[in-house]
């Protein structure tokens, strides 16, 4: 039996990157998947979003595992769209056991800056809350909620000497900090019901969000048009281990563990998958 055999997972941002990786990993271990993604660009975000064909490819990869999948194009900023998407999956599968609120964007260098702030907050924070809250009425004892934070949420940004030192970038940091607080408090309320809620904080992850022109410029502000080759050596500033980034599968393995009964008594946790990045920011002895 797989580690989540017979369970049903609702995954947002599932068309590519971490979301696709999480959905496929859960399917490999026996879960049926309700996979949603916005599948269109957001004007202030300086890199392309996933497209409908990407979501179709996620479905193909899930079906290749032998599991069932329902896909839907839905914008996490709109709770009504998420509710409709979830209900289509519930009509097919009849229950819900796992929520993976993964959808998110990085607004570094977004224009106009204050609209970039709004789009990031609405996608990352409001979108995560929407995904969880449309799912809550359908969750019972043993269910697991997993939200995606970021090690950026744990950084000291007071001096603004970080790659996200602009409104879209700071919205990313703020949204991930707020997610951490929201899930912590929600976990407290859900614990008596036997429902768990946790946050995973990834470091740089090798996805289209990281491998994008705005991110390269954020890490190499000294260059007018930095390339991946220019930026990649600087990506290592985020980690204590000598790597530029982790792979989506590294995060998916943590998602799988939190979704499984192996973590049945793990709740309210802020789980860092950061190659030691937190160690570079804080002295435990203080």
Automatic annotation (TrEMBL):
Gene3D superfamilies registered for this protein in UniProt: NAD(P)-binding Rossmann-like Domain
Source domain of life: Bacteria
GO molecular function: oxidoreductase activity
CDD domains on file: SDR_c
Keyword Coiled coil listed: no
Keywords annotated in UniProt: NAD, Oxidoreductase
Family, similarity comment: Belongs to the short-chain dehydrogenases/reductases (SDR) family.
Protein name according to UniProt: 3-ketoacyl-ACP reductase
Organism for this UniProt entry: Mycobacterium celatum
């Amino acid at each position: 039996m797989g580690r989540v055999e017979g369970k049903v997972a609702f995954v947002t941002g599932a068309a590519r990157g971490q979301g696709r990786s999480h959905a496929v990993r859960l399917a490999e271990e026996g879960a049926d998947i309700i996979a949603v993604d916005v599948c269109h660009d957001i004007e202030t975000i300086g890199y392309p979003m996933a497209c409908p064909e990407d979501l179709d490819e996620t479905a193909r990869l899930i079906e290749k595992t032998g599991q069932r999948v329902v896909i839907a194009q839905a914008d996490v900023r709109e709770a009504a769209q998420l509710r409709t998407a979830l209900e289509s999956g519930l009509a097919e599968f009849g229950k819900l056991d796992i929520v993976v609120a993964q959808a998110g964007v990085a607004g570094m260098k977004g224009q106009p800056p204050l609209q970039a702030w709004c789009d990031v907050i609405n996608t990352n924070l409001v979108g995560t809350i929407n995904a969880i809250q449309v799912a809550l009425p359908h969750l019972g004892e043993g269910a697991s909620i997993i939200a995606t934070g970021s090690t950026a949420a744990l950084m000291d940004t007071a001096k603004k000497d970080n790659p996200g030192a602009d409104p879209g970038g700071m919205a990313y940091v703020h949204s991930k900090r707020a997610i951490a607080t929201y899930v912590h408090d929600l976990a407290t309320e859900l614990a008596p019901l036997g429902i768990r809620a946790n946050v995973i904080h990834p470091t740089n992850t090798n996805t289209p969000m990281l491998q994008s022109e705005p991110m390269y410029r954020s890490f190499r502000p000294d260059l007018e048009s930095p390339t991946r080759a220019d930026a990649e050596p600087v990506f290592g500033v985020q980690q204590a281990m000598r790597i530029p980034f982790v792979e989506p599968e590294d995060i998916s393995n943590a998602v799988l563990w939190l979704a499984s009964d192996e973590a049945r008594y793990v709740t309210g946790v802020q789980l860092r998958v950061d190659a030691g990045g937190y160690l570079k920011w804080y002295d435990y002895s203080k």
